[in-house]
Design goal:
By secondary structure, the chain is mostly helical. It has six helices and three strands. It is globular.
């Protein structure tokens, strides 16, 4: 139990430090780590036509309520556009704007790469691969527990 407690406390600390130091890495671009995550999700080939708010919330593993305010701020800043879904007018689709793509590709991504290099500088490729493997196993178990407790179903196939 003590070892598990230490592990989860360190994950909590890592999440907090990722938010703090990651935001510092991209703050000159007017971004936070949450906005970085949204732009990163929307920049994938799979999301070329945009993503519904629900799909984006599931992909990022956040509530629609938390995502709603974030998207509103990003829309105000010109990074994303929100439009009704052509297939289902009740659903809204979030797309990266040309301005958002410029901020993401030209300004943020180089700084994010530098951030990753600094954080992972003492890690071998094998270290990174194993860490990712174990985090994915933990995430799968957390999702299974969330579903058992009545959380939403989710397709985790794009990790």
């Amino acid at each position: 139990m003590e070892l598990a407690n230490r592990l989860f406390f360190r994950l909590y600390q890592c999440a907090n430090m990722l938010h703090k130091t990651g935001t510092r890495a991209v703050e000159a671009e007017g971004l936070t780590t949450q906005q970085w995550a949204v732009l990163g999700a929307l920049s994938r080939d799979k999301a070329e036509g945009g993503m519904s708010v629900g799909d984006l919330a599931r992909y990022l593993m956040v509530s629609r309520q938390n995502l709603s305010g974030l998207i509103s701020r990003m829309e105000r800043d010109g990074h994303v556009a929100v439009t009704p879904d052509e297939q289902d007018r009740r659903s809204r689709v979030v797309r990266m704007t040309a301005s958002g793509r410029h901020v993401w590709q030209d300004l943020a991504v180089p700084k994010i790469r530098g951030y990753y290099e600094q954080i992972l500088r003492d890690f071998s490729l094998n270290d990174v691969t194993h860490t990712l493997h174990y985090l994915l196993k933990m995430l799968d178990n957390m999702e299974r527990l969330d579903r058992a407790w009545g959380g939403p179903e989710e397709d985790a196939g794009d990790r």
